[in-house]
Amino acid sequence: MIKAVIFDLDQTLLDRDATFANYLSSQYDHFQLSSSRVTKSEYIDFILSIDDHGYTKKGEVFQRACREILSSTVSSKTLLAHYQEEYGKEPVLYEGVKGALERLKKIYQIGLITNGRVQSQMAKIEISGIKDYFDSIQISEAVGVEKPDPLIFQIGIQSLDRKPEECVYIGDHPKNDVEGAKACGMKGIWLRKAYYDPPIQMDGEIESIVELQNWLETLNDAPR
User: What is the mean pLDDT of each run of 10 residues along the chain (224 residues)?
Assistant: First the structure.
C-alpha cells in the first residue's frame, strides 16, 4: 500500500518555464537591456528557446545571449551572478497544486526530491507557500548527488522512514524522475509533457497533479 507520495518540483508542482520567464523580465529591467535594442519579449523568448526547460547550463545560456542578441556592456558572468542570487523569487505554481497537496497531506506523507541549488529551490518552495506540506525536502546540491542517482531517492525514502514499495514518485522527466524512482523500487508516475517521449517504464501517467489522488485510490484498492 502506498503510504508516501514524493514529488519533483520544477515542471511538476511548479511551472518552471513561467517562473524563469518572470525572473528574466526582472533581469531585463535591472540591467536595462533595452539599450541592446532587443525587446523584453525577444530576450525572454530567446533565453527560453535555448534553456531546454532548465537543462542547459546557465553559464552557456547567458554566454549565448551576450554573443548573439545583446550589445550592451553587461557580461555573461554578471548575468549569471544575478541569476544565482535572484532566481526563484517569483515562482508560479500550476493551477490546483495547493489544493491537491492539502488533500493528499491528510492521507499520505508528502516528500520532495529536486535537482538544483538550495538557494533558488528553497526560495521557490517557501515563496510559493508549499513548504509546510512536505515531511521531507531533498535538494541535490545539499545531498551531493542528482537524480537519477539512486542515492538521492534512497535518502528521500529513508527520511520518511518508509520502504521503497510504500512510496510513489511523480515527475515530468522520463529518466531523471520516473525511471530513476522505479530503479529504487518505488512506483513511478509520469506527469506527461509533450516535449518528452514517454518513460521506458512507468506505473501510471497523468496530465495534472489534480488527477493524482484518484490514481492513488485506484492503486491502493487494486487486488494484491
Answer: 96 98 98 93 97 96 95 91 97 97 96 98 98 98 97 98 97 97 96 95 93 81 50
- Tens of pLDDT, residue by residue over 162-217, are 999 999 999 999 999 999 999 999 999 999 999 999 999 999 999 999 999 888 87
Query: Within 13 Å of residue 101, how many CA atoms lie on the same side as its CB?
Result: 26
**150 Cβ neighbours under 8 A, 6+ residues apart:** 180, 183, 184
Residues 20-29: contacts with CB within 8 Å, 24+ apart? Answer: 20/47, 20/48, 20/51, 20/54, 20/87, 21/48, 22/90, 22/91, 22/92, 23/83, 23/86, 23/87, 23/88, 23/89, 23/90, 24/48, 26/86, 26/90, 27/79, 27/82, 27/83, 27/86
- Give the global pTM: 0.94
